[in-house]
Structure formats: C-alpha cells, structure tokens
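Model it.
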Amino acid sequence: MSRPADVPELDAEQVAAWLAAHPQFFAGRDALLADLYVPHEAGHAVSLVARQLCLLRERNHELRARLTQLMDIARDNDRLFERTRRLIIQLLDADSLEELVAAVEDSLRHDFQVPFVSLLLFSDNPPNVGRWVSPQQAQQAVGALLAGNKTVCGVLRAEELAFLFPGEAGSQIGSAAVAVLDHQGLHGVLALGSPDPQHYKSSLGTVFLGHVAEIIARVLPDLVPTLRPVR
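Modeled.
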C-alpha cells in the first residue's frame, strides 16, 4: 500500500520516541510482535520479545551485582562499627595512661589489622608512659599536618614519616592517615600507616579515625592532670 501524499514520513527517531511514550502499544498485538525482528550482535535475527527478555536478564544480573556489593559494604561497616565501639569503650574505661596507650595500640594492630600505629603526644613535661615530643618539635616536623584540625590521608613526605613512625618503620610506609587529638587544645596525633601507597588515599573516609582521635583527646586530660593544651 502506498503512503498518501499528505501524510509526512516518519524517521526512526520519531518512531522510537512515540513507542517510548506508548509502551503499551504492543499489548494485544502478538501477531505484530511475531513479525518484528531486531538485529543481534552476532548477526542473527531475534524477535523483539526475545531481545527484551535478554536485556531484562542483563539488567537483572547488574542489579544483583550491585545489591551484592551494597550488602558487602554494609557487612564491612557493621564489623567496623563493632570494633570501633569496643575500642571506644576501652578508652572510656581506661584508668591510667598506660591502659589508654595499650588499648589504642592493641586494638588497632590486632582488631583492625593496622601494620603501623603511632600515638604521639605533645608536652614540655611529659610522663614516662607513651611517646611524647615537645610542641615545638611537632610544629617543625609535621606542622602542615596539624593545621585545620582535619584528618589527613595520603602519601606523606619522608621527614614526616620518619617523625611519626621512628626507626625503620617510616621507610616501609607507603601511605598514612593522621588525625589530630584536639579537644580544648591540641594534645597530639594518632597516625596509621600502610606499606601500600594506595591504601590511605586522600579521598578515603576518615570518620572512624576521627571518632577514635576525638575520644582520646577528651580522655587524656583526666589521665594526665599535668597535661596542658598546646593551643
């Protein structure tokens, strides 16, 4: 049948737009569906229904993969939350500086599997427990990491690593995360290190480390009465 002269010719885009606006068009038109074919990637012809079924299956696989990924992330977050909760309780229950230092190092090394941990405290008159440096030493060595009271993640300079992780540890660290202990003044830093340069990226979420550092900063003055804030 020839097309009437006064009927405009439709291009493929117009037909596709119309069908998208009328998704029920093929309902009840089984005969029409049986006559429609869509080229397959392999060069064979398949019916529109078969092609739609194939696409739905592919999307279903993608959605399942995304759901599995989200469930894995949720389980990881649950485990992280539980370990963090236990550590925070230990910090709050600490009756001495010795107990606090031991809780931080044991939990991070064993529960969190962090290979390099450094709790560095600032004071001009430090006690004999833990690792202490003067505020002046800290400013000279890692002053850039202390600015802004933010947790810093990424690849640090060699001199910064040597100061935070003394001995041979500094040379083995590819990336690190550093959180300041700041509550009514600066009291120190908590640093975590990894041999993997990509482990602690600058975009890495630092909520967990920030929470732990905040608790340590709040508990320290009660355990060390002579501790004076740097600023």
